[in-house]
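In the design runs reported in the main text, the only information available to the sequence generator was the tokenized backbone. The following block is the verbatim input for one such run; it is reproduced so that readers can re-run the procedure and compare outputs position by position.
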């Protein structure tokens, strides 16, 4: 069977409305290349599979009976793909313009690039984080203590990054930055799996996504492994998508919160060993214990938010107890 330019892999789990918009945008805005679309459904119960089969008969569908996670489901699509490149694409994302062919050409012209990420926007047009430096213990310390709340103003963080970025150090600068350099092609450590273009030969060299990650950190791990093998990871701002992850009305999700830290533990243990895992556990448990104290102090005065506070408290305790 003849190869094609691109395979677009979309992993779906109860995202019927978003998925329909996603597929419509793919077929409306993709021109100038030969491509196929594979939807891997992780046991949806909202009629997603039926919708795809009825309204997008050209799409190949892989039906899983249960939620296998992001990495495992995308690997299923990659194994069945025919494209010279594979695009991992979230179901709650949409193409904005017909420029996907430019990403392909950029990869063609730079054979040293294994993975290419793009510019990602929120629904209101603001920049969404899409790339970063590899996480380290200081990164996790900043995140678990939510130190970004000390500088809540986006404008202020932008000024700090522009004027004092070099003095802050890489980790703190990346933590505070608001993507003032979002229009420049540049090499980065990792790009998000929400829209990640990977070269087939790079996958053959490095291997598939690590299926020990259920969700989160699998894209970071893949980019890390790519770079260790000599492949480059680049950010390409001239292809834009809208990602509704932060604007879909979903509040704090305790399951997602716990899974994120499970993945973080696995990532640090995989690449840093027992010492890194021990220190990360110490940082996370200490930080979440402080958060629990803060919630207890806030609880008597927040009558209308007590259910949310209880949900957060329970998630923090579950994460503290994670012993992966």
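Verbatim output:
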């Amino acid at each position: 069977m003849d190869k094609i330019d691109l395979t677009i892999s979309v992993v779906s789990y109860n995202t019927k409305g978003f998925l329909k918009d996603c597929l419509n945008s793919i077929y409306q805005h993709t021109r100038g290349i030969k491509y196929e679309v594979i939807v891997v459904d992780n046991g949806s119960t909202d009629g997603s599979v039926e919708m795809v089969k009825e309204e997008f008969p050209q799409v190949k569908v892989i039906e899983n009976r249960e939620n296998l996670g992001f990495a495992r489901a995308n690997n299923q699509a990659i194994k069945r793909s025919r494209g010279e490149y594979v695009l991992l694409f979230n179901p709650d994302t949409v193409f904005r313009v017909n420029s996907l062919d430019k990403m392909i050409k950029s990869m063609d012209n730079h054979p040293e690039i294994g993975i290419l990420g793009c510019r990602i926007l929120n629904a209101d047009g603001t920049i969404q984080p899409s790339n970063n430096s590899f996480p380290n213990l200081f990164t996790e310390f900043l995140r678990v203590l939510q130190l970004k709340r000390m500088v809540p103003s986006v404008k202020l963080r932008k000024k700090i990054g522009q004027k004092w970025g070099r003095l802050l150090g890489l980790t703190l600068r990346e933590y505070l930055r608001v993507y003032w350099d979002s229009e420049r092609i540049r090499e980065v450590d990792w790009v998000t799996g929400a829209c990640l273009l990977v070269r087939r030969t790079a996958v053959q060299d490095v291997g598939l996504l690590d299926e020990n990650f259920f969700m989160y950190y699998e894209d970071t791990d893949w980019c890390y492994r790519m770079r260790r093998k000599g492949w480059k990871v680049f950010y390409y701002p001239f292809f834009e998508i809208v990602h509704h992850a932060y604007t879909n009305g979903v509040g704090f999700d305790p399951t997602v919160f716990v899974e994120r830290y499970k993945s973080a533990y696995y990532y640090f243990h995989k690449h840093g060993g027992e010492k890194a895992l021990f220190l990360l556990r110490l940082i996370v448990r200490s930080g979440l214990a402080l958060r629990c104290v803060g919630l207890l102090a806030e609880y008597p005065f927040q009558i209308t938010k007590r259910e949310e506070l209880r949900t957060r408290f329970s998630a923090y305790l579950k994460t503290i107890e994670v012993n992966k």
